[in-house]
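Input for the complex:
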Amino acid sequence: MSPVEFVVLVFLVSVVAGVLGSLLGLGGGVIVVPALTLGFGIPIELAVGASIVSVIATSSGAAAAYLKERISNLRVGTFLQITASLGALTGGYLAGVLPQRLLYVVFAVVLGYSALAMLRKRHELVSADVKPDRWADELRLHDTYHDEAAGTDVAYRVTGTRVGLALMYVAGVVSGLLGIGSGALKVPAMDLAMHLPIKVSSATSNFMIGVTAVSSAGIYFFRGDVDPFIAGPVAAGVLVGAVGGSRLLGRTESARIRVVFIIVLAWISIQMLLKGVL
Amino acid sequence: MRARSGPRTSRPPREDATNSGADASRSGGPDDAAHGTEALERAIGMVLRVGVMLSLAVVVIGLAITFAGHGSYLGSSAGLHNLTKVRGAFPHTLAGIGRGLAGLQGEAVVMLGLLLLLVTPVLRVAVSVALFALRRDRAFVIISSVVLATVLASFVLGKATGG
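Predicted:
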């Protein structure tokens, strides 16, 4: 394959990654890394470097489409980002210390459990019994969003703030260690522990993964793990895909988003398990 | 505390709640806070739009320059391995990128575009700090400042350890 063919193919794959990523609140990294390493035979260091770039591209690209901003809960996202960024810093440092295989297995288990839990909740638009949460009240985290597909405004209350912070720290650590945005951990955390509607979780995750990824991006970039021939077309493709994908978010039914997310989670979970075990 | 019986589930929109999200139907607090958040979100969206478009343009231009300067990249497969191996010959320090830009090297232009992209989430947080301050939301000025500080610190640390 010639360089130009490579660049074009990587671009196309990245567009798909951007669409899926912005729709589900993932960084696209979970698609980009396997595609690059298994599909194109790229060394893992460069694939991870490109992955970090794709996470930021998904996050910022989707956010550039204004609609996404209306659905995401900026206050919740900023609040949770405290521990997510701290976690990413921790993860970046731990990168050399922990055995990666162990991490893949843990990650796979967590994702598998999240997929099952979300499967049970897939038809709910908003949670019925939400426990009062003092921090959520005082910081005014509760909000309303307009669900285009359902055609209504949906008001929701936020809870589980402390649990959310703890889960975001874990997601941040994983982020720094694996070079991903950890949207796959953030969305279930917000959906299940904090009772945010799935679209809000997805949109808010989009905001958070970008900020989390920057915490590791500096290290990868200046170490030379971001190769312009790989990260360049990845960035371009994901940006194009993410802008398009975020337009879809409003028009897609919440239940369908959950189902697609669960399928992607399950697939990632199996991939991770195989990497850890084999 | 509001005299509400419990959390609302979905219901049809009120007749005056047409398209604006910042109206009294928000349960998140006084209208003032709701309006503030919407202006903030709009500003962030605009900053990001500019940053993203600029980054995309620079990356694409950089790739175009690279391929224009190396005709062999269009046909042969020999070069691909060299371009995508670890410790490849592309600039990855600020000084190196500066030198590459001076020499109109395509790879350096792509790296500049990628750097621009990496900066966009930082800008996003910085703008949110400013706008929470404008709204006099002290709790969130502190919260977003902490996030900004953490992100900047990690970027600086990354530069120090990497290049």
